[in-house]
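For anyone still unconvinced, we reproduce a single protein record, the chain in one-letter code, the fold tokenised, and leave readers to judge:
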Amino acid sequence: MNRKYKIGLFVLLVVLFTYLVPGIFGISRIQSQLIKQVSETLNADVDIAQIRWRWGPLPHLTILKTTVTHENYTLRLPKIRVYPSWQDLLAGNVRLGRIVFLSPKISLTSSFFTNRKEGENTPFSLPLTEISLRDGTVELSPFNYGSFRIANNSLSHVNLDIGRDAEQFSISFKSTSSFADNISFKGHFFADASSYSGSCKIKKFQIANLGELISSGIKPLPSEVDFSCDVIGRSTESVQILYNGGVPAFSLQRLEKSVPFQFSKTKLLLDKSGNNFTAKIYELDLPEPEVSFAGTVSRYFPDSSPVPFYRLDLSARNIDLNGVRSRLLDLLGDEHITTTVCNVVRGGRAKSATYTFDAPVTDFANIQSMTINVDVDNANIHVPGVDLDLDRSSGPIIIK
């Protein structure tokens, strides 16, 4: 067989295969099976305008103008590329190998988060195929999440990749949004051990655009902050989160006056182990009033106690006593401990201070349960009992 004949035969076979493949695979049957399977799985109305077989750049099915309608969400999928398993497809079975969603639009109603029907909250499982999403949009309707009211928000330029390898899968996510200029996340999940790890970075996060607290003395204030989070855990029993960056501005109002807070720099480690919780504060800077915090706050259950204990071991430096005293009186001026401490420390500055407490929450009302050490520097101090006022004093004082 000469070369020209071989080439001609090859071209003929390719042409015939190109025209016969859709018939061999039964495109119309695949379309009806997909609609049925997706409808039954999601309990939703599914409409697929057309399915075509494409050869380039790799052989795949192109699904055009798909709409999935559910009472909790609507999916508008202009184009989906499905790369099937050749072996299963030739055997007449529809098994997805890789799916790419191009410019999808996802609209989530408030009921998606609040009114799930019984049986719809299925356990999390690994996806059976690789999934990619390119230039997607997500619209979020307002809803209540606990005491937080989520506003009408959106995600745009959404790019998502989910890849599976043996018993783990990886996730890569990037988008912009109405409440942050840039959101990115990368992580891994291991199904056998129910363990996971990941990192998240958010730039110019605006919590006031995201939503607000309902019936609370805490109110988000306009601000833009950058921060990152690293998380590692096993199910919900053991979780560690390292937070580094700014904290969104907020105000607290417990009495008559609202008090604003804006932490400029924060680094802390949140650690949950069973019912115990610990926050390790490496750095927490407040420019107004000027003070920098560090230390540990934890909640734990002693063997002999049915109620949790709270252990606080905090330190502060570069303290503006005038500003701190004013904030404490605005927020906790009706508390006996606050008035007692503020009656001793009248103003000035302090080089450092420490606060220790280890007892149930009810003992916060008892000053004997805590110890406050302050190294004052040019401060106004009142000595109770002897009615003595010390102006511009320096040195250590202990309140307990």
In short: The chain has a mean pLDDT of 83.
